[in-house]
Amino acid sequence: MHKWKRIITTLLFGIVWGDNPNSIVKPYDGPDPGYILAESNGGLSNRLRVLASYMHIGLAKFRGAHLVFIWDTNVACPGQFLSVFEQINTVIFATNSSRYVLDKNAKIVYENSFAVMNWILMQNDIPKNKFGFPSWREIEYKMYSRYFPVQEIMRKVNEFVIRHNICNASAMHLRTTDLDRIMGERKRLNIKSFFKFVESRPTDEKIFILTDHPDIQKIFIIQYSVNKIIFYQEIVDTTHQLPTTANNFTSLPIEHRYTSLEHTVIDVIIAAHAKVFKPSPYSSLSELVKIFEFIGKKDRKWCA
């Protein structure tokens, strides 16, 4: 009797929990658009720029092809896209560990890129201004409009914006971490111009500071106090971020970011709410602030 109970139990368990060969996703109904593959291992704003470019190329040049985008975390971008932005329905995010599966089935595999959007579009024969086609500016606006910060990030942003009245404040971005290495001495950031900016604003107006280095943040806080200079989070100083080997401090790589990816996105979106923004020259992150400012205030009712 016990033997038959075991047999019946096994059969029922197999029916309920076993693999069902009929429970598969049916084939795509219609012509398969396939996918293209692209990659960027730069910082956040560089990646978003390359991602936006190839999203459009997949749609416009390859008849609606999806995009597989290689997004590996590194010191320049310490986090995944889907940890800070909502899923995009035509994009699949992957890492280099999956390349051996993905490369061979892609319509085309693009090389790792740090290029600006205009260059990528030009190289792929996307017209800049042609009747019946969107302009490069329109493409940029449409593709970046697909970047929606996740709900938790927007909750934190909205709380900060309301608490500090950012819609009636100014903001500034000071990029220093890797600027000298990339641009050289001639294009070094002129900090004095940011002192002049702060002093040019009304006395009772707060200034939101977006920066990638704790020393810069401290300089402005000491100079003008926290009643004037506001920030989302205090950046941890260098000694607390140094990696250790055998109990000895080692140097940080030049591309190291002192803020988390979430912190960076929150900073960008807060700055995009300000009524006046002073950018850092030669910085794609400053450009990202201005793009989000345009999209947010035009389409998303920021500071309405």
Defining key terms:
11 helices, single chain, alpha/beta, Rossmann fold, 304 residues, 2 domains, elongated, four-stranded parallel sheet
What can you tell me about this protein's structure?
- With 304 residues, the chain is α/β, with parallel strands linked by helices.
- It has two domains: 35-144, no CATH class; 151-299, Rossmann fold, CATH 3.40.50.11350.
- 39% of the residues lie in helices and 12% in strands.
- It has eleven helices and ten strands.
- β1, α2 and β2 form a beta-alpha-beta unit.
CATH class category label of the largest domain: Alpha Beta
Count of runs of 4 or more consecutive helical residues: 11
Rg of Cα set: 24 Å
Measured between the Cα atoms of the first and last residue, the distance is 75 Å
Largest sheet: 4 strands, parallel
> What is the number of domains?
2
Assembly state of the chains shown: single chain
| Proportion in β-strands | 5-15%
Low-confidence stretches: 179-183, 239-249
CATH architectural designation of the largest domain: 3-Layer(aba) Sandwich
Strand order of the main beta sheet, please?
3-2-1-4
> What structural category characterises the helix and strand content?
alpha/beta
Total beta strands: 10
- Overall pLDDT level: 86
Series of H and E elements? HEHEEHEHHHEHHEHEEEHEH
CATH topology of the largest domain: Rossmann fold
From the spread of the alpha carbons, the general shape counts as elongated
**Percent range of helical residues:** 25-40%
